[in-house]
Structure formats: structure tokens, C-alpha cells
Amino acid sequence: MALTRNFDDTVIDRARSSKTFRTLLLESAINELINGDFTIAKISLRQYINAVISFEQLAKVTNMHNKSIQRMLGPNGNPTTTSLLLLLQAIQQIEGLRIQTKVIRK
């Protein structure tokens, strides 16, 4: 029987090696937040943070506890809008990004 890699490890390795992939991972997380799929949004944000920044670095920038950030993005986490926006602001600051939204009519 062939061994397979853990999916999270595969995503993290890909995000670390591809700037385009990590940008798409963050974009996906934000789109899922806007569209109301909080489970997928939290998973994507967690993967992005693990691959690109670190929970420790994010905790320093946001003045939040490392474990609090991990819990809020965990399966049973229920982050507030304020907490999510703080995380996104910190990600922009750390990564030198500017997050924009775009309205598209159906």
C-alpha cells in the first residue's frame, strides 16, 4: 500500500514555494468569509498562517494570544468580526499586501 502525504502538509509546502498559490489561498479564505462558508475560510486562513507567517508572529502584531488565534481558527472556533479584521490587517502589514474587494454583478 502506498503512503500518502497529509493534505495540510501538501498545501503548506505548496504555499511556501509559490507566491501565487499563497496569494490564492488568502484570496480564497477572504472570499469564503464573504460568502458565508466560515468553516472553509478558517481552514484556509489557518493554512495560510502556518505556511507563510506563524501564529507567534501574528500574535505579536495583533496583541492577541497565540493560542487564542489558533482556537478561533480551529474547528470549533467562533471568531468575532473584529478579531478576523485584526488578523487580516496584521496579515497585510506582515506580508506587505493590500486586500481589496471587487463587486461583480451576476
Summarize the entry for a quick read:
This protein is an all-alpha fold and 106 residues long.
Protein model, in words:
The protein is mostly helical. The protein has one domain. The protein contains 6 helices and no strands. It is globular. The termini are far apart. The model has no long low-confidence stretch (mean pLDDT 89).
End-to-end gap? 47 Å
Q: How many DSSP E strands?
A: 0
Q: Characterize the overall form.
A: globular
Low-confidence stretches: none
SS field, number of helical segments: 6
The percentage helix is 55-70%
List the helices and strands and how they pair.
Elements: H1 7-17, H2 19-35, H3 38-52, H4 55-62, H5 66-72, H6 81-95
Helix pairs in contact: 1-2, 1-3, 2-3, 4-5
Can you give keywords for this protein?
106 residues, mainly alpha, 6 helices
